[in-house]
C-alpha cells in the first residue's frame, strides 16, 4: 500500500509539473505574438507615413510643387533609417540617386536641384514601390 501511495504522489507531482510548464509556454507564446503584432503594426504605420509623403504628389505638378517634392525626397533620404526607405527620382528617364556625402540627388555629377530651374511649368509625377510596399522611386516627366 505504501508503494501505491508513493506512486500516486509521484504521478501527481508529474501532472502538476506538466501543467505549470504548459501554462508558462502559453504565456510565453502569447507575449511573443503580442510583440510581433506590435512590430508589424509599427512597420505598417512607418510605411504608410513614408508613402504618404510622396503619394500626395502623384498627379500633375506645378514648378513650386516639384521643388517641394524634391526637398521632401532629399529630407527623407537624409533621415532614412535603412536603405529600404531611400528614394530615387527618375526625371525624364534619368535616375537621380541619393548621394549621402553631398546629401543631394545626383546623376553623373549633375544635381537634381538643376531641374528646379527648368523653364517648364508643368510636370507629371507617379511613384513605384518595392516588394515591401515602400515607395522607392518617383518618376517625374515634363508635360
Structure description:
The chain is an alpha+beta fold and 143 residues long. Helices cover 50% and strands 24% of the residues. It is built from two helices and seven strands. It has helices at residues 2-55, 63-79, and strands at residues 60-62, 88-91, 94-99, 104-107, 110-111, 122-129, 135-142. It has a seven-stranded mixed β-sheet with strand order 1-6-7-2-3-4-5, with helices on one face. Strand 6 and strand 7 form a beta hairpin. The longest helix is centred in the N-terminal third of the chain and has 54 residues, at 2-55. The model has no long low-confidence stretch (mean pLDDT 81).
Descriptors:
7-stranded mixed β-sheet; 24% strand; 2 helices; rod-shaped; alpha+beta; 50% helix; 143 residues
The overall pLDDT average reads 81
Q: Spatial order of the strands in the main sheet?
A: 1-6-7-2-3-4-5
Structural class estimated from helices and strands: alpha+beta
Oligomer: single chain
> In whole angstroms, how far apart are the ends?
97 Å
Counted by DSSP, the helix tally is 2
Written as H for each helix and E for each strand, in order along the chain, the element string is: HEHEEEEEE
Helix content: 40-55%
Q: How would a crystallographer describe the biggest sheet?
A: 7 strands, mixed
Q: How many DSSP-defined strands?
A: 7
Radius of gyration: 28 Å
Poorly predicted sequence stretches spanning 5 or more consecutive residues: none
General shape: rod-shaped
Strand content of the residues, in percent?
15-25%
Amino acid at each position: 500500500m505504501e508503494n501505491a501511495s508513493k506512486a500516486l504522489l509521484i504521478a501527481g507531482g508529474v501532472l502538476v509539473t506538466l501543467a505549470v510548464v504548459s501554462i508558462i509556454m502559453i504565456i510565453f507564446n502569447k507575449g511573443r505574438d503580442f510583440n510581433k503584432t506590435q512590430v508589424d503594426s509599427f512597420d505598417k504605420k512607418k510605411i504608410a507615413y513614408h508613402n504618404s509623403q510622396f503619394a500626395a504628389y502623384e498627379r500633375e505638378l506645378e514648378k513650386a510643387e516639384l521643388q517641394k517634392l524634391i526637398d521632401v525626397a532629399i529630407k527623407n533620404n537624409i533621415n532614412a533609417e535603412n536603405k529600404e526607405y531611400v528614394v530615387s527620382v527618375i526625371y525624364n528617364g534619368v535616375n537621380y540617386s541619393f548621394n549621402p556625402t553631398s546629401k543631394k540627388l545626383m546623376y553623373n555629377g549633375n544635381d537634381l536641384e538643376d531641374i528646379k530651374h527648368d523653364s517648364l511649368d508643368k510636370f507629371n509625377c507617379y511613384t513605384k514601390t518595392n516588394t515591401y510596399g515602400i515607395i522607392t522611386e518617383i518618376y517625374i516627366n515634363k508635360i
